[in-house]
Design brief:
EC number: 3.4.14.-
Number of helices: 18
Number of strands: 11
Keywords: Aminopeptidase, Hydrolase, Protease, Signal
Organism: Streptomyces cyanogenus
Strand order of the largest sheet: 1-2-4-3-5-6-9-10-11
Largest sheet: 9 strands, mixed
GO molecular function, one term: aminopeptidase activity
Distance between the termini: 26 Å
Structural class: alpha/beta
Strand content: 5-15%
Helix content: 25-40%
Pfam family, one: Abhydrolase_4
Radius of gyration: 23 Å
Amino acid sequence: MTRSAFPAGGRRPRRLLFRGATAVALSLAGALALGAGPASPAAARPAADPLARYHHQHLHWKSCLLGPDDATGKELEQAGAQCADVTVPLDYARPDGRTITVAISRIRGTGTAHRAGALLLNGGGPGGQTIGDPPWVRKAMRDVAARYDVVGVDPRFVGRSTPLDCQWPTGSMIRGAGAGRAGFDRMVSFAADLADRCRTRAGDLLPYAGTRNTARDMDVVRAALGERRISYLGYSYGTYLGQVYATMFPQRVDRVVLDGVVDPARYSPRLLRGTEQVNRHALRDWADWAAAHHAAYGLGRTRSAVLGTVEAVRATAARTPLRVGGYRVDDHVLPVIVFNGLSQDNPQAYGDFAQGVRDLRRAAGGRTVTPSPWLASALEFLLTGHESAYGSAQASILCGDAAAPRDPETYWRDLRRAGTGDRLFAPVTNDINPCAFWDPPRERPTTIRDDLPALLVNATGDPRTIYRGAASVHHRWPSSRLVTLRGADQHAVYGVFGSACVDTTVNTYLATGRLPARDTTCARR
């Protein structure tokens, strides 16, 4: 896998998602109360802002470089970025209580005569860092970048912000259910243990994770930057965050681009359900490519032969775990590796995945294997605590946003209903996860407004945020426009895939603030 079960778009490996929830509620961070009719001079004065000390804080800008080995910091430094920590309340119901910090980076625009304001970014996850994204986003923006301050924000509990780390032995809560009831019962215990570790090690923070609080933090960032309104670019889960922010703070948004669109009607800890068919399609397309490159990878000369290789590896891992370097790969892990090999539709990503499958096939044949860099990274992520903080933050956001079924039998019934026709994806998308053992969310999900003017972007073959979801969101928002990339199994498109048609459409909107007159369809190159 790249990093998570939810990889999102971007130049470096991305985390997805999801990269829903009550009638347009005014948050504590939000609006002034509107009076009704004439009032006395005292009553006419604006109510005191309970967040004034956060909205008017002075930001101390500094170098983004944390040390000689900080690759992200070096890229930001070379691009002319500076970083700051924004103080926000842990609990917006108690703004005078405990505080945490949200880390941001900023590259200032140079076109002061036609300044469009600040463009805030979110690269997905949930749980993915965004602080390092302004340099590559500015390159995608081309000349339009001069008009914006491009701002990367690590959401609360993510990356360089105040951390939330449950000390997991893995970087992801996602697993395959395995074969039979015994395998599923192991996953029930695994999920319950992850939830218990979070309750034990981060119980003071868990109630305050979630997208609504992240949106409130974004508005504090807006105010601390001195901006009346902000524009927004979100990928994958970041599209859901953008929808929530625009619903909670409708007067604070300017231009909104949502790429890899999460349908809020499907947003929940089980939102991967329903993606199986699209993932099978992406696997077949990759198999076509691998067959055409049989000389390099040796996986088979036809699509069916390559798919047969993948199935043979899966079946072997189900019988006896594979030894790959120092790792043990069983039928709970192998389907997740396959799942996460399928989100970027380009030769580099296809080749990395093909090398990984080649290594797994060799291990299935009993050979001693040193995994390729992509596979080694995936195994380290899945089978060690190296990125525990990432998985912990992702779970805390998903589980904190919406409740999941609590009875394990619900998941077992869904797995049995899926049958044995799909042994790779259905066991992943229907499996139980720690949200089944989480405390109930503190807030209801946000009912997204249906008049959001936004530019939506999605590829028809996106295996994470499926195209049907983007089309549904567009149908509910007559004020939106949809940019469709046809014929690509690609998750996150703008500035990532290399479609001049998509990039030009987005940049024209960012430059003018005017949505296209009609929806746009872009052909794959």
